[in-house]
């Protein structure tokens, strides 16, 4: 799994920490950010699909494969 640095303003950090504290399912700030990015990617995929009618079969397969890989990375990250 590759690591990506994310700069978060102090104001946003405290808001994220409140989410992590109050909502079950988040282990820490990084877990929250990872899931938020994943949700945003899924939304973008769906919007693109609506706009273009559909992806080519090859594009769809590639995107689905990447989403599965990301889900596996989430499982691995949740074990640590």
In words, what does this structure look like?
This protein is 75% helix and 0% strand. The chain is mainly α. The protein has one domain (10-79). α2 (29-52) packs antiparallel against α3.
How many domain modules? 1
Largest sheet: none
Unreliable parts: none
Distance between the termini: 12 Å
Helix count from the secondary structure assignment: 3
Kindly state the mean pLDDT as a whole number? 80
| Overall number of strands | 0
Determine the fraction of residues in helical runs and give it as a percent range. Answer: over 70%
Kindly name the structural category.
mainly alpha
| Strand portion | under 5%
Specify Rg, calculated over alpha carbons: 15 Å
List the helices and strands and how they pair.
Blueprint: H1 10-22, H2 29-52, H3 57-79
Helix pairs in contact: 2-3
Summarize the structure.
It is built from three helices and no strands. It is mainly α and 80 residues long.
Name the features:
80 residues; mainly alpha
């Amino acid at each position: 799994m590759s690591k990506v640095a994310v700069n978060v303003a102090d104001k946003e950090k405290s808001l994220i920490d409140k989410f992590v504290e109050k909502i079950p399912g988040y282990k820490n700030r990084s877990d929250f950010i990872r899931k938020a990015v994943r949700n945003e990617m899924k939304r973008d995929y769906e919007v693109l699909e609506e706009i273009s009618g559909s992806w080519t079969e090859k594009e769809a397969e590639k995107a689905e494969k990447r989403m599965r890989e990301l889900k596996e990375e989430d499982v691995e990250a949740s074990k640590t």
